[in-house]
Amino acid sequence: MQPSSQPAPALTLDAAAAQALAERPTAGRAWRGTLRRLLRHGGARFGLVVVALVVVMALGADFLSPYDPIAQNSAVGLSPPSLAHPMGTDEFGRDIFSRVIHGARLSLLVAIGAVAISATLGTLLGLLAGYLQGASDMLIMRPMDVLLAFPGLLLALALSAILGTGLTSVILAVGIAGIPNFARIVRGAVMNVRENEYVLAARTVGAPGGRIVGRHLLPNVAAPIIVMTTLYVAFAVLTASSLSFLGVGVQPPTPEWGAMTNAGRHILRLAWWVSTFPGLMIMLLVLAVNLIGDGLRDALDPNLRV
């Protein structure tokens, strides 16, 4: 007698969930794929190398600089580039190479501090405005629209004039100036995501607003936040250097690239190296960060994946 064929047992709810989780790409796997796509981007690779060199300069400034960055030696004032002074000296005899290396530390400190302020507060305001909408959206975004009416450098200049000169004031001024941009980008992304089925389902079953924002909205708008954060690093470096160039940022004799560029502008024909090398460092770092941001945008955009 042949045994009767029995249907395969149905998966239990726990087993089905476990199988679905096993087949779903993990977050780590997704980010590894993003990193591979980023490293295939030629411009991003160049940018990563430049930023890595600047980070090494900033972290090892005390060991890499051959001279004290603020020590004066009038006997070698305005010396052209040589073996003893690879980037020459300024009118006070200070070694420009040493000052450029120490200036990398200030530029990165300003960029990290300002971006932390802009990204944190701007993302929070954008999440609240995009999720709550209505009166809350009006209350949050109308002041942001007023701030967006001012050019970023002009707004940072006004804030720096109010807060005063110094490193802390520059970080606060540049950080506050970037909040409206983050808020606007995040709000737009949240408004697109909040109407998806999984968000509507979470609201239907009574999930609290904080859980919806943290578990469903924020992870799905992370890509534009990451790209915006990267690009704003370049804006922060350029704006902080501009403030110091205009005399309302970090003050001499502190080695800061913008202030160093300003110090040599009146003797540019006589001693071109005083302004040229700090200006080149600003250009290289801003270009490198922009290239990384461009590569991140391509790596995170599903429409560009082949």
Shape by Cα distribution: elongated
The CATH first-level class comes to Mainly Alpha
The CA-CA distance between the termini, in Å, is 56 Å
List low-confidence stretches: 7-25
User: Which CATH architecture is right?
Assistant: Orthogonal Bundle
State the CATH topology: MetI-like fold
What pattern of helices and strands is seen along the backbone? Answer: HHHHHHHHHHHHH
Count up the helices: 13
Question: On the 0-100 scale, what is the average pLDDT?
Answer: 84
Largest sheet: none
Care to count the β-strands?
Answer: 0
- Tally of domains: 1
What proportion strand?
Answer: under 5%
Radius of gyration: 26 Å
User: In CATH, what is the homologous superfamily?
Assistant: MetI-like
Proportion of residues in helical segments: over 70%
Structural class: mainly alpha
Which tags fit this structure?
71% helix; MetI-like fold; mainly alpha; 306 residues; single chain
Structural write-up:
71% of the residues lie in helices and 0% in strands. By secondary structure, the chain is mainly alpha-helical. The chain has a single domain (61-69, 84-304), classed as MetI-like fold (Orthogonal Bundle). Helix 11 runs parallel beside helix 12 (257-263). Mean pLDDT is 84; it is low at 7-25.
